[in-house]
Amino acid sequence: MHKRLEIARAARIAGVRREEIQNHIQAGRLTAFEGTVDLAELTSVYPGLAHVGDEMLDRVARIKEEALSKAVGGPPRNTEALLEALRNSEAESRHYREKIGAYRQLLQDVLAMLREHARTLGGSPRLQAIADWMERKMRSLG
């Protein structure tokens, strides 16, 4: 797999302006993809960059990862760990959505029972007031 560099970073590494990289792209000497260029192509256009290899790019990637982890407050994680955390979060979210649905149904059942008791007790104003209050609260919760 080829290493890809953002155009701005490629220009910095090559020691040229971004416009010069853009000119090489327009002339067909470099191929751009989603704002990036291939490192191998860049070294063919700028042969002096042959010494810029995986070591420097890996160091840059580590620095970026450390900065990101500081910004979001946590240790750096690899892609697999992030995917696993996402899967766990999705499963937990599904579990809580199911629980919320069950609690909503429970509240609706209690409300129906309150209304039935209010009706069978000759239209008890107190039970009717509680049922009305409960219905308003349920609506406000969504």
Ordered list of secondary-structure elements with their pairings:
Elements: E1 4-6, H1 7-14, H2 18-27, E2 32-33, E3 36-38, H3 39-45, H4 54-72, H5 79-120, H6 125-141
Antiparallel strand pairs: 1-3, 2-3
Helix pairs in contact: 1-2, 5-6
Describe this structure in words.
- The structure is a single chain.
- The protein is mostly helical and 142 residues long.
- It folds into two domains: 4-72, no CATH class; 79-141.
- It is built from six helices and three strands.
- The chain has helices at residues 7-14, 18-27, 39-45, 54-72, 79-120, 125-141, and strands spanning 4-6, 32-33, 36-38.
- It has a three-stranded antiparallel beta sheet.
- Helix 1 (7-14) crosses helix 2 and helix 5 (79-120) runs antiparallel to helix 6 (125-141).
- The chain is rod-shaped and about 95 Å long.
- The model has no long low-confidence stretch (mean pLDDT 83).
